[in-house]
# Entry
Amino acid sequence: MKQPTAAGGTNVGSMKALVYHGPGRKAWEDVPDAAIAEPTDVVVKVDTTTICGTDLHILHGDVAAVTDGRILGHEAVGTVTEVGDAVKGFSPGDRVLVPAITKCGRCEYCQRNMPSHCQTVGGIGWIFGHLIDGTQAEAVRVPYADTSLYAVPGNVTNEQAIFLADSLPTGYEVGVLAGKVRPGDTVAVVGAGAVGLAAILTTGLWGASRVIAVDTNKFRLDKAREFGATDTVEAGDNTTADVLALTDGVGVDVSIEAVGYPETLLTAASLVRPGGTIANIGVHGVPVSLPMQDMWIQNVSLTMGLVDTVSIPTLLKMVASGRIPAEKMGTHSFTFAQLDQAYDVFGNAAENSALKVVITPA
Ligand SMILES: NC(=O)c1ccc[n+]([C@@H]2O[C@H](COP(=O)([O-])OP(=O)(O)OC[C@H]3O[C@@H](n4cnc5c(N)ncnc54)[C@H](O)[C@@H]3O)[C@@H](O)[C@H]2O)c1
Ligand SMILES: [Zn+2]
Ligand SMILES: [Zn+2]
# Structure
């Protein structure tokens, strides 16, 4: 944090942050304070952050754009401490949600309501902990604050709002909305991690009559019921037959993939009825070969994409009114000093009965 000097000015101080040092290496260490660089920036003191599966991918060295020295993390709830001269909508003291996607509000993609591809900072909306320093830190610089930040309503807690930075909008936008869930639909969700559970939690809002969760992990299937699944299927050799049996043999209207493996996309594709939608959320690392010779005649759609986080205002209202119990996503709490432990628990989530971790300064 900034230290006053004897002369009354300020020195550039230092803060602590989780810094990436190449595959498998990270450290909670001293870095220069987050500071305003552009008039459209604000600095946010991080009060709550979390870890995403993408952070684990980065640590495995899977995301080449993340280089040695980058502060990790792309989700935060915090308090504005400094505002740039051009910022109109936020003031010091405001409690804000820092979403995974930053938007300039002016480029062609922002104007199409698709800030996932905001052209202004590096050509992609996901910049924190990727192209610029991230949120697993005592403070973070937020570019384009007016168009990117969200004020958190007084009756929404930090432990609820933090899951609206990434997981909940992802399950909702890339799963439920892209899949076009409609009243009465049957929906299958393959993969009941944080993102699949977010899809399960929000698909009921569109009146799905049946929500079938498919996972290999029994703890996740129990969670799926808690989050609103009407049926659960343990993934195995009979997954497709088991799901079809629950839908009178015809398949589901919307099949959501929330794992990111070739076999789980193939499973999701095998569950959909003619005219239905396969909504792929998973991040894929290898090519997937789909049985187009069987699929072409089924009139099915396949959707995919990076989350835009434009549903955050809707989701915030739903959390505020009690329709979405977002706090259920958080299963473990840690302090900044325990970040290593938080990564260990999250990295071995299945063995630890963990979903998402909540990380606070102390
Ligand atoms: N498209 C986007 O914008 C976006 C954003 C965030 C995350 N994602 C992706 O969404 C996916 C899910 O994220 P998450 O954080 O929930 O991950 P996660 O690892 O917490 O959950 C994955 C779930 O899949 C289950 N699973 C594993 N193998 C399976 C199988 N063969 N059959 C059925 N279930 C199986 C696991 O038990 C686990 O519950 C990941 O690929 C992630 O990278 C995409
Ligand atoms: Zn993420
Ligand atoms: Zn833009």
